[in-house]
Design a protein that fits this description.
The chain has 27 helices and 21 strands. It is of the alpha/beta class. The strands form six sheets. An eight-stranded parallel beta sheet has the order 1-12-11-10-9-8-6-2. A five-stranded parallel beta sheet has the order 17-18-19-20-21. The protein is globular. The structure holds glutamine (GLN) and zinc ion (ZN). GO terms for molecular function: 5-methyltetrahydropteroyltriglutamate-homocysteine S-methyltransferase activity; zinc ion binding.
Length: 769
Amino acid sequence: MEISVETIGFPRVGEARQLKYALEKYWRQQISLEELLNTANSVEEQNWRVQLAAGVDRIGVGDFTLYDHMLDWTMRLGCEPSRFKSIEDDTDRYFAMARGRTGIPAMDMTKWFDTNYHYEVPEIDQDCSPRANFTSFLEEITRAIDALGSQRAVPIVIGPLTYVGLSKLKNVSLSDIVKKLTNVYVELFEHIMKLGVTEVQVHEPILVTSKGLGMLEMIAALYGGDGTRGVLTADDRLAVDLVTYFDGLDERVYRAVCGSNVAAVSMDFTRGDNIAMLETSGFPADKRLGLGAVDGRSIWKFHPDELTQFLKRVDGCFRSGKIPSKISLQPSCSLHHLPYTVEAEVSLKQNEELGLAPVLSFAYEKLSELTAVREGLSKLESSASSDVFCEVRESWEGFYRLNPKKQPVWDRITSITASDLSRPEQFSDRRPKQMTDCHILPTTTIGSFPQTDEIRRLRRRFISGTISKSDYETEIDKQIAYNIGVQEALGIDILVHGEPERTDMVEYFAQKLDGFAFTQNGWVQSYGSRCVRPPIVYSDLTRLHDMTVREFVVAQSLTHKPVKGMLTGPVTILNWSFPRKDISRKDQALQIALCLRDEVSDLERAGCRVVQMDEPALREGMPLKDHKKDVYLQWAVDAFKLSTAVAKAETSVHTHMCYAEFTDCLDAIMALDADVNSIENARSGNETLEAFKKAGYGKDLGPGTYDIHSPVVPAVTDIQQKLQEFLSCMPPEQLVVNPDCGLKTRKWPETIAALRNMVTATHQVKSQL
Ligand code: GLN
Ligand code: ZN
């Protein structure tokens, strides 16, 4: 076997988030473009140096970005939406597309496949006339060649199928646009060849999704097959490595890809079942096989026994002649979904009682894993065991010794019955018993109120130990009192405490549960300059104390109106964390659900009559293949119901969802059996609401009456109009009035003005009923 090592993408914010800070300074006009680019280039060059030092034979380059790689391709392919075309300067246009400008709304963002990274969604209509704009890309590739050599630097190109497949298409067909774009790609490949490059990675992750099946003909046209040469593989001087990730390939797509003229096919062997495909169908002898064997989305080190099993299967394929001798070991996907390095986690490393750091593996450590896997694979032949494998095995043994299974948690999971998942009474029976003091069209908010500098300062002082816990709580209680006072004064009906004690809706709960660990520097890019630091599930999850009761009690003591107990749902907590890899996501969700279930009971005991369980991330955990969606949605719904069904019939259970289109999982949303669903709606027209109606949603709904992402105060008439539209869809008894999402990012004056208008509009609409 001839085994090389390759990477297919790297983190790009910088070990110390240098790029984030430089971007923010540039936007505030504190540094020049040149200074911004200097920072960007030095981060990128450092990335190359690290990969080079780790012995990577071919390094994916050109994936670096100032904001988002899809947005870069929108610029490079000349597919900017027409509203930005008047902005001549490339950089200004680029950031305008990402962040908007007065009068020109930004492009939409959405999740990159099933990851937590957001990309800028291309918008393509019949006016789209692609044109090559590759100057800065080619400069970047030239810098990479200078640093790494033309054989080691492999440009990463987002393929046309993925680019168009992820776009919003308006009055145009996917295949027409792909055809239009092909010439631009051909032009790019010519330029790349002129630089002396001999291979490109064309990333086509769209092929693993259900959409891939509809692209067979386009695969042949672009990459060859069925007797066609393939437009993008027509020139022998430039080899194409077709890269897919995030799941396995469907058999027909696999056959199309294998039958193409590409020189290499790279696949994800950590998700889906590509290995079984190799065993049954083999792999063409004329191509290099890209073996994505190191999980690029897992923060955990590999499990030596599992990996050995896998490598034996690969070796078996090789021995039986099913796969060629040229193999490239690589991460399963770009490493930009991981933090930079475990070395920066001083606290975790010092915490030997936890034993966690030795089993963690971030981007830098994944590079070492690649070499370890190479060694593992070559040692298989001599059946000697590799030192690194032994070392990693010991680390895992140590970890399991220090963090044993919590048997009571598992006993509780096995004893879950169907009745634990259903409310004591049907909606029609329980609804009349709930919130009896809330008349028709009750007004409410989603949970958070403005997080002011004062609150942030307060939190910092508490964390650094400058103020005591009781002083901190006293200050938090003042904020709660203020929030309640504002809502009382505005005449809102169902109140919230305002979440001043929470930095983040997931981190807050993770900190209260036993079994979560936290990093100091484990940042991953969420979008643009925004990074998140997801908590790590390291052990079975348990609730040691109640988590939200104190703040609820404080708030409820200040008002006769109902205050919502405010919780983050199990699926969202899980999806926004780094999960364990050796325990199913379902079991982890159920563990969190059991903790939340106990919290709901405690809130009820403390007098809470309305519980809100937010699930904004329910949709984003959905698998990429249609046939896998039901299984996911089933356990996701079960986890939500396990958390909430314990509520008494008299307790009104709310949920809230946002950040996504929910129209393709309406059955699941209905199955949650929440009494009220306050759902983001303002930006999507009323499509969401209409889809709910069409699906026969019979419970209460709170479609967002205004968009909270903008500081603009909605006029009374705008909200009235919205409410009238809602009322044309559903009866007033079923309607709750609220904004689109939490108000934490807004300032107080606009918050008060907007809510006042919302209440006024509601009164006026009510008086006309
Ligand atoms: N209750 C949360 C808040 O209002 C919900 C946030 C969210 O949906 N992302 O902040
Ligand atoms: Zn929201």
